[in-house]
Design brief:
The structure holds two protein chains of two kinds. Chain A is 61% helix and 0% strand. Classes of the chains: A mainly alpha, B mainly alpha. Chain A: It holds the Pfam family HTH_3.
């Protein structure tokens, strides 16, 4: 559960563009966006920095909102 | 070095963390599978030696050595990284863990005893053309094997328990 897709689309970036900015493959970004892979803290920070936000905004969901925003 | 070997063998590089994590999962799963297949091959080879040739062939010996070395390397690595350690939160928890260790030590000793006797019988059968051990030799082997296994297993497992409340 994360808002990576939402923030990426707001920037107008493709998955590949985001992947190149954080130094991973497009496949990894796709897996994270679809909740098929839990990234390391280091990668979470790089993603948050690249998308111009913080970890709380990108990964934290108040209770009950998980299903609505993912 | 290991990464280069993986790349050379399977032509996958594990370029980023997702790929590395998935690769590690696949390789660790297959390593366990191959470990058991190797044991199966080793026993099959020893049984065939016993029935057909009545002496242990070089191929069987190589399989035994590889299986033993593999088992030892994995165990040493697991111990080196403290993965056998169990933490007890308080005295009551500690007694519960000790009771579980006692049960596990008895269970594992019974399994090791059966396996040891099977191995002893198999080797005896394979070597029967040259030598057949007496009942006394078999009993001595089993007593020493089971005794050493039981004591070392039980002591080692108890030593792995960490009293967390003493660690300030």
């Amino acid at each position: 559960m994360n808002r990576i897709r939402q923030f990426r689309q707001a920037q107008g970036w493709s998955q590949l563009a985001l992947a190149q900015r954080v130094g991973v493959t497009r496949q990894t970004v796709n897996m994270i966006e679809n909740n098929n892979y839990n990234p390391s803290l280091d990668l979470c920070i790089r993603l948050a920095q690249a998308l111009g936000t913080d970890l709380n905004t990108l990964f934290w969901f108040p209770e009950g909102l998980e299903g609505e925003e993912s | 070095m290991m990464e280069r070997l993986i790349r050379w063998t399977f032509e996958v590089s594990g370029r980023d963390e997702y790929q590395k994590a998935e690769l590690n999962k696949i390789l660790s799963g297959s390593a366990v599978l191959v470990y058991w297949l190797l044991y199966l091959g080793m026993f099959a080879s020893l049984i065939i030696d016993g029935f057909w040739t009545h002496y242990v062939t070089a191929g069987s010996m190589i399989l035994v050595i590889i299986a033993l070395v593999w088992g030892i390397i994995i165990n040493v690595q697991i111990r080196k990284h403290g993965l056998y350690q169990i933490e007890a939160a308080n005295e009551e928890d500690l007694q519960k863990i000790y009771r579980r260790i006692n049960f596990q030590a008895v269970r594992d000793t019974i399994i090791a005893g059966i396996s040891g006797y099977a191995g002893w019988s198999l080797v005896s059968f394979a070597m029967s053309a040259q030598y057949w051990p007496t009942i006394r030799e078999t009993v001595v082997f089993m007593v020493v094997f089971v005794g050493v296994y039981a004591v070392t297993t039980w002591r080692y497992r108890r030593r792995q328990v960490i009293k967390a409340w003493e660690d300030n």
